[in-house]
Amino acid sequence: MGWTGRADGHRVRFDCAHDRLRFDGTPGQRVRTIQRDTRFRGSGVELAGRLTLPPGEGRVPLVVLVHGAEHDSALQRYSLQREFANAGIATFVYDKRGTGASGGRYTQDYLTLAVDAVHALDEARRLGGARIGRVGYQGGSQGGWVAPLAARIAPVDFVVVGFGLAVSPLEEDREAIAFDLRRAGFGDDAAAMAGAMAIADATAALIDSGFAEGYERLAAVKAQYAQAPWYASVRGNFTWYLLGNDADTIRRDAPGLVRGVPAHYDPMPVLRGLDTPQLWALGGEDRDAPPGETLRRLAALQRAGKPIASAVFARADHGLYEFETAADGERVSTRQPDGYFRLMADFILGKTLQPRYGEAAVCASAACAGG
Prior knowledge:
Blueprint: E1 12-15, E2 20-23, E3 26-29, E4 34-41, E5 46-53, E6 60-66, H1 74-77, H2 80-86, E7 90-94, H3 110-128, E8 132-140, H4 143-153, E9 158-162, H5 169-183, H6 190-208, H7 215-225, H8 239-243, H9 247-257, H10 268-272, E10 278-283, H11 292-303, E11 308-313, E12 322-325, E13 331-335, H12 340-349, E14 356-357, E15 360-363
Parallel strand pairs: 6-7, 6-8, 8-9, 9-10, 10-11
Antiparallel strand pairs: 1-2, 2-3, 4-5, 5-7, 11-15, 12-13, 14-15
């Protein structure tokens, strides 16, 4: 059961010498996908990538997987490169600059990363040749800012955003803090919410200055509210780190953690100017990227005629993982919700979306968006 440490009752046996497995008594044979590793030029750096093609010679859609903010190697960790390929979709994955086998310096500058994604798409098309049909991006978390920007720079056929946002990083942190308080039972406490937003303002000012100033203001709000009953519930997206460390640690380490991130980046001009079909899959219990304001903005875009479909998996946290809550209040991920992968695959394959995928209803018109 995910990260709980409990067995889920299934039994899997691998026979690697003969490319076979047995799942609960059902035999399976390895699917021989086609993998082509490559090194290519991004925006001024050399990046490492891999194209995985389904078996056969027929034309297939291509999806380029766009990173979130993680420092891990996507080549090593992104299982979607195999899952999509087994669903009949050519998939290109690459280590973002400064991670894994790629060169360059790690950054969270969305424009730089979007240009890298465009280069990745060009390389994937080159490797796939005549087999490549419709093309697009799938981006999770921070990739939800980068993928639409890449599509605006160089047109594609589709964009899939998973657990991403249509608000700025600073707005994300404020919305996450408000979600924290509601979850802890302080949603109707106006004084608690005002105090939490004062903390959010202080941490935003520190980030906005590039961690050059604002330490006294942060210290003041910490001292003012540290004994408040709601204070321990304030987490946010990055505020938890600033509350939990002293000024010297923040000065030393924080700039590297958010290197290049455009804290005030407003994604709406890009989304308003984008006519590419988009699918947004969101988690209803996402405490890092709460979807409330994003859903309102997507609904407005749908009413304006933009080709956007959205689906909310009500019990999923960030990463689109369902979870259990441990005795200490921390969440332990269990599994991705039924229907999440099928939803993305159907959209990429160009199929008509079903009304529901698992427990998530699909909103693909102005009617369900309230128009």
